Amino acid sequence: MAKTKTVYRCQECGRVELKWLGQCPTCQTWDSFAQELEEPRAKPGLPAPSPSKPVSLAEVSGMDGDRRTTGSVELDRVLGGGVRGGMVVLVGGDPGIGKSTLMLQCLGHLASVDPPVLYLSGEESARQLKLRASRLKIGGKGAEGILLHTETTLERILPWVDQIRPKAVVVDSIQTFQTERVNSAPGSLVQVRESTARFSRLAKERNIPLFLVGHVTKSGALAGPKMVEHMVDTVLYFEGRESQGYRILRAVKNRFGSTNEIGVFEMTGLGLREVENPSALFLSERPLDQPGSVVVPCLEGTRPILVEIQALVTPTPFSQPKRTSLGVDSGRVSLLAAVLEKKLGLSLSGQDIYLNVAGGVRVVEPGADLGVALALASSLLDRVVDSKTVLLGEVGLAGEVRNVPRPELRLAEAAKLGFERAIVPQRAARGGAKAAKGLELMGVEYLKEAIRKGLGKG
User: Fold this and answer.
1) What are phi and psi of 147, to 5 degrees?
2) Does the chain have fewer CB atoms within 10 Å around its N or its C terminus?
3) 361 strand-pairing partners
4) CA distance 436 to 433
5) H/E run at residue 103
C-alpha cells in the first residue's frame, strides 16, 4: 500500500515542490509555500461505484422554509434572511472587534428557541465564556441550551457532535483546531484546511448550521483565504476600529443571499446592539459648513446609507505629492483628480490629497464619484458645499455625470434625514422626483456644471 507523502504547494500559483522554498520559481512570490499531504494515486482502472446513486433534480426537496432567525435583524440581513441547515459561515475580523460576542449572542437566541447548540472554544475556557454570557445577559433557557466544549482535536470532538445532535455549532477559532491525520502544528495552513473540510462535511451531512470564526493576518485577509473561503458557503468580515463604538458586518461571499448587504452594530457594555438608523449615526458628528466635507447617499444591498466624505487638499513640500485615501479606492481618487485637472483646469498635481470616509465606512460603489470630486474641489478652492445638500452620481473620464442604480431609494433616505437639495445626474432628477418629496433636485450632465451648482460661481 502506497504511503502518503508530504509536499509543499505555492498558495499563489499551485506549484508543488518536495522541499520548502523561500520564493516560488514560477510566480516569484515570497513565503508562499505551505505543507500539504499528497495522497497516493489510485491504480489504473475504473473505481468502485459510490454507495449513493444519482437522483433527479425534481426529487430533491427545496429549502424555502429552512430559514431560522438568529435573533439579530442585522445578522439575518447579511446572511440573506437567517441561517439554513448545513450552511457553513466563516466570520473574520481583527482581534477584539466582537466576533466571539456576536456568535455567543446568536447562539443564545438559537438555544432559547431550539436547543441544544454547541460552542467549541479553542481560545477561551468555559469560565471565560460564562463571564461573557453573564455580561451579555444570556440566562434562563438560552444558557441551559448552550453546551460548551474546550477540546481542540477533531477526533475527540466529532463523536460528541453525533451524540449531542446540536441545532447549531460555533467553532472559535478555526486556527486553534487540529486533526491527528495531519502531522503539523495547529494554525498551519494544512491544519486549517483539513479542519475546515471535516467541519464542513459534518455540517452538510448532519444538516447543521456551522459558524467558523477566523483570525485576520497582518495584511488584513483571513488566514489561509485561498484554501478556506472557497470551502464555505458564506464569508463575513467584521469592519471597524476598536477605538470606535460601532462595527460593520459585510458579506464578501454568500451562496444563499446577496453579497451587497451590510449589518451595523454598536459595541456596548452589554454586547453588540443593532443600529436601526446607520445614516443618523454616521452623520451625528459631522462638522457643518466646512470646506472638503460632503454627504453622499450610498446603497449597500437594499439599504440606503448616508455617509460623510472628507477631503483635505494642501500644497506638498515634497517633489512627489501624497495620495492617501481611507474608505475609498485610491485608484478611483487618482482618476477623479485627473478628471478635475484635465476637464476643469484645477491644479492638483502639486497637492497632497487626503480623503476619508468618516466613521470607518468603506464605499465601494461608483455612485460616490460626484461626492469625492466635489470634496476635492471644495478643499482646494476653500469653498463650502451647503450642509443641506447631498451629491450622487458616477463620473466618467470625459467629465460626464452618469446615473446610478436605485436613485429614488437614496434620495428618499436623504429627504427623511432633513436634507433639502440634491445634485444628481439629469436622468435621476427626472426619475426620482416622486420619491424625494421636499427635496430640490438639481440635475447635471457634466462635472463642471455640478461644481458650479455645488460651490457657487465665485
Assistant:
1) -100, 130
2) N
3) none
4) 5
5) helix 99-113
